[in-house]
Design a protein that fits this description.
The structure is a single chain. With 208 residues, this protein is an alpha/beta fold. Strands 1-4-3-2-5-6 form a 6-stranded mixed beta sheet, with helices on both faces. It folds into 2 domains: 3-59; 65-207, Rossmann fold, CATH 3.40.50.620. Helix 1 (3-27) packs antiparallel against helix 2 (32-42), helix 2 packs across helix 3 (45-59) and helix 6 (159-169) packs parallel to helix 8 (192-199). It contains 8 helices and 6 strands. The longest helix is centred in the first third of the chain and has 25 residues, at 3-27.
Length: 208
Protein backbone atom coordinates (compact mmCIF):
# COMPACT_ATOMS: atom_id res chain seq x y z
CA UNK A 1 0.00 0.00 0.00
CA UNK A 2 1.56 3.28 -1.05
CA UNK A 3 1.52 6.38 1.15
CA UNK A 4 -1.34 8.10 -0.70
CA UNK A 5 -3.68 5.15 -0.22
CA UNK A 6 -2.65 4.79 3.43
CA UNK A 7 -3.27 8.49 4.05
CA UNK A 8 -6.70 8.26 2.44
CA UNK A 9 -7.68 5.24 4.52
CA UNK A 10 -6.40 6.87 7.70
CA UNK A 11 -8.32 10.06 6.92
CA UNK A 12 -11.50 8.02 6.52
CA UNK A 13 -10.91 6.28 9.84
CA UNK A 14 -10.31 9.61 11.59
CA UNK A 15 -13.46 11.18 10.14
CA UNK A 16 -15.62 8.22 11.18
CA UNK A 17 -14.00 8.28 14.62
CA UNK A 18 -14.73 12.00 14.98
CA UNK A 19 -18.39 11.42 14.21
CA UNK A 20 -18.60 8.58 16.73
CA UNK A 21 -16.74 10.52 19.44
CA UNK A 22 -18.83 13.66 18.93
CA UNK A 23 -22.06 11.66 19.18
CA UNK A 24 -20.95 9.83 22.33
CA UNK A 25 -19.59 13.00 23.91
CA UNK A 26 -22.91 14.80 23.56
CA UNK A 27 -24.85 11.79 24.79
CA UNK A 28 -22.59 11.34 27.82
CA UNK A 29 -22.46 14.99 28.84
CA UNK A 30 -19.02 15.81 27.48
CA UNK A 31 -17.95 18.80 25.38
CA UNK A 32 -17.92 17.43 21.79
CA UNK A 33 -15.65 20.03 20.15
CA UNK A 34 -12.64 19.27 22.32
CA UNK A 35 -13.08 15.54 21.92
CA UNK A 36 -13.41 15.93 18.14
CA UNK A 37 -10.11 17.85 18.06
CA UNK A 38 -8.46 15.15 20.15
CA UNK A 39 -9.76 12.53 17.73
CA UNK A 40 -8.30 14.48 14.79
CA UNK A 41 -4.89 13.98 16.42
CA UNK A 42 -5.21 10.51 17.94
CA UNK A 43 -7.75 8.90 15.66
CA UNK A 44 -9.81 6.02 17.11
CA UNK A 45 -7.59 5.94 20.22
CA UNK A 46 -9.63 8.90 21.47
CA UNK A 47 -12.68 6.63 21.65
CA UNK A 48 -10.87 4.54 24.25
CA UNK A 49 -10.17 7.66 26.29
CA UNK A 50 -13.80 8.75 26.10
CA UNK A 51 -14.99 5.31 27.18
CA UNK A 52 -12.64 5.55 30.16
CA UNK A 53 -14.06 8.89 31.26
CA UNK A 54 -17.58 7.53 30.86
CA UNK A 55 -16.81 4.59 33.13
CA UNK A 56 -15.37 6.96 35.73
CA UNK A 57 -18.41 9.26 35.52
CA UNK A 58 -20.82 6.38 36.11
CA UNK A 59 -18.85 4.75 38.93
CA UNK A 60 -17.96 7.98 40.75
CA UNK A 61 -20.67 10.60 40.09
CA UNK A 62 -19.66 14.11 41.14
CA UNK A 63 -21.62 16.33 43.49
CA UNK A 64 -23.79 19.24 42.46
CA UNK A 65 -22.63 22.84 42.80
CA UNK A 66 -24.94 25.15 44.72
CA UNK A 67 -25.26 28.74 43.58
CA UNK A 68 -26.73 31.67 45.59
CA UNK A 69 -26.53 29.79 48.85
CA UNK A 70 -27.76 26.55 47.32
CA UNK A 71 -29.21 23.76 49.37
CA UNK A 72 -32.82 23.11 50.12
CA UNK A 73 -34.81 26.03 51.48
CA UNK A 74 -37.55 26.19 54.08
CA UNK A 75 -40.45 25.42 51.75
CA UNK A 76 -42.91 22.70 52.64
CA UNK A 77 -42.41 21.07 49.23
CA UNK A 78 -39.62 20.93 46.66
CA UNK A 79 -39.86 21.53 42.92
CA UNK A 80 -36.85 20.78 40.72
CA UNK A 81 -37.07 22.87 37.55
CA UNK A 82 -34.67 21.77 34.81
CA UNK A 83 -33.64 24.73 32.64
CA UNK A 84 -31.36 25.36 29.69
CA UNK A 85 -30.64 28.14 27.23
CA UNK A 86 -33.75 27.43 25.14
CA UNK A 87 -37.26 28.87 25.25
CA UNK A 88 -38.29 25.73 27.13
CA UNK A 89 -36.78 27.24 30.30
CA UNK A 90 -39.20 30.16 30.13
CA UNK A 91 -42.15 27.79 29.72
CA UNK A 92 -41.00 25.86 32.78
CA UNK A 93 -40.74 29.05 34.86
CA UNK A 94 -44.15 30.30 33.75
CA UNK A 95 -45.72 26.95 34.59
CA UNK A 96 -44.29 27.20 38.11
CA UNK A 97 -45.61 30.73 38.58
CA UNK A 98 -49.06 29.59 37.41
CA UNK A 99 -48.93 26.91 40.11
CA UNK A 100 -48.72 29.73 42.68
CA UNK A 101 -45.57 28.11 44.05
CA UNK A 102 -44.90 30.74 46.73
CA UNK A 103 -43.67 29.03 49.88
CA UNK A 104 -42.35 26.15 47.78
CA UNK A 105 -38.65 25.37 47.56
CA UNK A 106 -37.92 25.85 43.83
CA UNK A 107 -34.56 24.54 42.67
CA UNK A 108 -33.43 25.60 39.20
CA UNK A 109 -31.06 22.99 37.81
CA UNK A 110 -28.70 23.73 34.91
CA UNK A 111 -26.57 20.87 33.55
CA UNK A 112 -23.27 21.62 31.79
CA UNK A 113 -20.71 19.32 30.14
CA UNK A 114 -18.20 17.74 32.53
CA UNK A 115 -15.39 19.88 31.14
CA UNK A 116 -17.00 23.02 32.59
CA UNK A 117 -16.43 21.78 36.14
CA UNK A 118 -12.69 22.47 36.24
CA UNK A 119 -12.13 26.23 36.41
CA UNK A 120 -8.50 27.08 37.05
CA UNK A 121 -8.30 30.43 35.28
CA UNK A 122 -10.32 33.63 35.40
CA UNK A 123 -11.29 33.09 31.75
CA UNK A 124 -12.73 29.66 32.52
CA UNK A 125 -14.59 31.09 35.52
CA UNK A 126 -16.04 33.85 33.35
CA UNK A 127 -17.14 31.36 30.70
CA UNK A 128 -18.73 29.17 33.37
CA UNK A 129 -20.63 32.10 34.88
CA UNK A 130 -21.84 33.17 31.43
CA UNK A 131 -23.00 29.63 30.61
CA UNK A 132 -24.98 29.34 33.85
CA UNK A 133 -26.52 32.78 33.33
CA UNK A 134 -27.58 31.92 29.76
CA UNK A 135 -29.33 28.79 31.03
CA UNK A 136 -30.98 30.23 34.13
CA UNK A 137 -31.34 33.98 33.50
CA UNK A 138 -34.71 34.01 31.73
CA UNK A 139 -36.30 31.61 34.21
CA UNK A 140 -34.96 33.56 37.19
CA UNK A 141 -36.37 36.82 35.89
CA UNK A 142 -39.83 35.29 35.44
CA UNK A 143 -39.78 33.79 38.94
CA UNK A 144 -38.50 37.04 40.45
CA UNK A 145 -41.28 39.03 38.83
CA UNK A 146 -43.82 36.60 40.24
CA UNK A 147 -42.29 36.70 43.73
CA UNK A 148 -41.34 33.02 43.68
CA UNK A 149 -38.16 32.35 45.63
CA UNK A 150 -35.69 30.02 44.01
CA UNK A 151 -32.17 28.70 44.18
CA UNK A 152 -29.77 27.67 41.44
CA UNK A 153 -27.82 24.41 41.27
CA UNK A 154 -25.37 23.30 38.57
CA UNK A 155 -24.84 19.70 37.56
CA UNK A 156 -22.36 18.23 35.10
CA UNK A 157 -22.81 15.41 32.63
CA UNK A 158 -25.71 13.90 30.75
CA UNK A 159 -28.70 16.22 31.34
CA UNK A 160 -31.34 13.51 31.65
CA UNK A 161 -29.33 11.43 34.10
CA UNK A 162 -28.35 14.44 36.21
CA UNK A 163 -31.92 15.73 36.42
CA UNK A 164 -33.11 12.33 37.64
CA UNK A 165 -30.23 12.07 40.12
CA UNK A 166 -30.79 15.56 41.51
CA UNK A 167 -34.51 14.94 41.88
CA UNK A 168 -33.75 11.84 43.93
CA UNK A 169 -31.10 13.63 46.00
CA UNK A 170 -33.49 16.46 46.85
CA UNK A 171 -36.45 14.09 47.34
CA UNK A 172 -38.34 16.40 45.00
CA UNK A 173 -42.10 16.48 45.19
CA UNK A 174 -42.13 17.38 41.50
CA UNK A 175 -39.69 17.64 38.58
CA UNK A 176 -40.66 20.14 35.89
CA UNK A 177 -38.92 20.03 32.51
CA UNK A 178 -39.62 21.53 29.10
CA UNK A 179 -39.91 19.43 25.98
CA UNK A 180 -37.18 20.42 23.56
CA UNK A 181 -35.80 17.48 21.58
CA UNK A 182 -37.34 17.02 18.15
CA UNK A 183 -36.53 15.86 14.68
CA UNK A 184 -33.06 14.52 13.93
CA UNK A 185 -31.56 15.49 17.29
CA UNK A 186 -34.22 13.51 19.13
CA UNK A 187 -33.84 10.55 16.79
CA UNK A 188 -30.07 10.45 17.30
CA UNK A 189 -29.62 11.53 20.90
CA UNK A 190 -33.01 10.96 22.44
CA UNK A 191 -35.15 13.47 24.29
CA UNK A 192 -34.02 14.61 27.74
CA UNK A 193 -37.63 14.89 28.85
CA UNK A 194 -38.34 11.34 27.67
CA UNK A 195 -35.36 10.07 29.66
CA UNK A 196 -36.53 11.83 32.82
CA UNK A 197 -40.08 10.52 32.47
CA UNK A 198 -38.83 6.95 32.00
CA UNK A 199 -36.23 6.90 34.79
CA UNK A 200 -37.36 9.28 37.54
CA UNK A 201 -39.17 7.87 40.55
CA UNK A 202 -40.41 11.36 41.48
CA UNK A 203 -43.50 12.89 39.80
CA UNK A 204 -42.62 14.61 36.52
CA UNK A 205 -44.41 17.32 34.53
CA UNK A 206 -43.31 17.96 30.95
CA UNK A 207 -44.20 21.44 29.75
CA UNK A 208 -44.75 21.78 25.99
Amino acid sequence: MDFAVFALVWAGIVIVSMVIVSYLAVRWGREPFGWALLTAVLGPIAIVGLLGTRQSDVQRPKGFERVDGGGRGQGTSCIVAAVDASAAAERVARYITEMHARGTDVQLLAVLPHEFRARTTSTQETEHTAAVESMTGAARRILDEAGVQHRVTVGYGSPGAEIVRFGEEEQADLIVIGRRGAGLSKALLGSVSDHVVKHATRPVVVVD
